[in-house]
Amino acid sequence: MISILTLALAPVAAIMTFIYFNKRIELEPLPLIFRTFILGALLVFPIMFIQYAFNVEGLLQSPYSQSFILAGLLEEFLKWFIFLFAVYQHREFDHPYDGIIYGVAISLGFATVENVIYLLANGAQYAWGRAIFPVSSHALFGILMGFYIGKAKFNTYHNKMWLLLALLIPVGLHGLYDLILTTTASVWIYLMIPFMAVLWYIGIRKINLANHNYPNVHTKAE
Q1: What is the pTM of this model?
Q2: Cα distance between residue 161 and residue 173, in whole Å
Q3: Percent of the chain scored above 70 by pLDDT?
Q4: What span, in angstroms and rounded, lies between the C-alpha atoms of 43 and 48?
Q5: Rounded to an integer, what distance in angstroms lies between the CA atom of residue 98 and that of residue 100?
Q6: What residues form the membrane-spanning segments (predicted)?
Q7: Domain range annotation of the chain
Q8: pLDDT score for 214
Q9: What does the buried/exposed string (b/e) look like for 3-32 if buried means 16 or more CB atoms within 10 Å of the residue's CB?
């Protein structure tokens, strides 16, 4: 049990540390980050119940429905909702990069519980694969969600459009990720590696943009 927890938490801690210390100005308060992480972790249980109920009833069972609705839309919508409900109006959310930090915290909270459950059920031998693909993909979806929520909060125009993109882009990418896993059988790895490489490239680019392209962010936050 200890080894499973260690293997599940190690990639989460590594990614969260990387995101946290990449902020160029004052660091965010750890209690708020921890709270958003816990909220993300708690999402696993209602999501698992809803997905189980749909499976039992035989609803939305096609690969496309499973990938884009029961996985992509359901999971990313609830993360997005939690972000808007618990973080968006918080006074500590005072820089666009903070959106990335809290988006990743929510996503990694979810990924941590999901990862622990999977490793307990299937064995520690899957830990490296889980770290490279599901855990990091959740973090990358969180980067994109947080980036666009940051744009929504700190721009005086197109706020609703940025909030919509903060939902739709992670939903689409999450759905595509799951679709690759469920429909490409033995060749999935050849599609997933370039897919993840592109996601990481985009994620790093968004991190740099959030850090450097907002010189006057406090005018609206104040």
Answers
A1: 0.92
A2: 18
A3: 95
A4: 9
A5: 5
A6: 6-21, 33-54, 66-88, 100-121, 127-149, 161-181, 187-204
A7: 2-221
A8: 57
A9: ebeebbeebbeebbeebbeebeeeebeeeb
